[in-house]
Design a protein that fits this description.
The protein is an alpha/beta fold. It has 2 domains: about 5-100, Elongation Factor Tu (Ef-tu), domain 3; about 115-235, 3-Layer(aba) Sandwich (Rossmann fold). It contains 6 helices and 11 strands. Strands 4-3-6-1-2-5 form a 6-stranded antiparallel beta sheet. Helix 4 (about 160-165) links the parallel strand 8 (about 145-150) and strand 9. The longest helix is centred in the last third of the chain and has 14 residues, at about 210-225. It is globular and about 50 Å long. The mean pLDDT is about 95.
């Protein structure tokens, strides 16, 4: 069934970091806007004439709610028309046009494997939705390890949310490439290779972020000996 376009009002804008804009929008529809954690919406932005110029897709950071509010995170790309619009033009109260939800980068139907979530930058967004869903609904799982990478402390998205997460068998690791953090400086690759270098069928890897980082992570995991079906990908850019 084809998704119809809906209006959504911007109810909150905030700076998640100097280069990531947080965006809370409320879908103006009498029907409940339900989505599965990990899915995304597509926005039709007033930044061009052709569809490919205007359409941008963004993962949803929160979980379904009765208020039809969805949270997005927009990374700034220098010279990008969408970035300029979100950072310099969009204001609270403005109306956006969206369709969705869409996407299959979601939690497994059976939670019998440990989930290792590897991400960089705004690639953490769908994982925030997934982890919130597991926590809110008391879903039984076999462990979750979130490994987040960025350049410096200022770029750690949802830091307090993950650090304060009260979820059994949840582990949160941060890799900063330009600063020391918790006695470590480097990249996400060293963390998962060190922790999961011994191959196990009881692991499921979720990778999300910029394509070059995720491509490298997939290649490294396959080189370690993990099976292709143990690796799920969501690429940004």
């Amino acid at each position: 069934m084809r998704k119809k376009w809906k209006n959504a009002r911007v109810i909150r804008l905030l700076d998640l970091s100097s280069s990531v804009k947080g965006l809370d929008i409320q879908v103006e529809d009498e029907e409940l806007f339900e989505f599965i954690p990990g899915q995304f919406v597509t926005l039709d932005l007033p930044i061009g004439q052709k569809r490919l110029d205007r359409w941008r897709s963004y993962s949803i950071a929160n979980t379904s709610n009765k208020e039809n509010i969805i949270q997005l995170a927009i990374s700034y790309i220098e010279g990008g028309r969408a970035s300029e619009y979100f950072f310099n033009t969009l204001r609270e109260g403005d109306i956006l046009i969206l369709k969705g939800p869409e996407g299959v980068f979601c939690l497994p139907k059976t939670m019998d494997k440990k989930l290792v979530m590897i991400c960089t930058g705004s690639g953490v967004v769908p994982f925030k939705s997934m982890i919130s869903h597991i926590s809110d609904h008391g879903i039984q799982h076999n462990g979750i390890h979130l490994i987040f990478g960025t350049r410096n402390k200022e770029g750690i998205l949802y830091k307090s949310f993950f650090e304060d997460m009260k979820l059994k068998d949840f582990e949160y690791s941060v890799a900063l490439s330009r600063e020391m953090y918790n006695d470590y400086q480097g990249y996400v690759h060293e963390i998962y290779e060190s922790r999961y270098g011994e191959i196990s069928d009881n692991l499921l890897f979720y990778l999300c972020g910029w394509q070059h980082v995720i491509d490298e992570a997939e290649e490294r995991l396959l080189s370690l000996g993990y099976k292709k079906e143990q690796i799920l990908l969501e690429l940004y850019g």
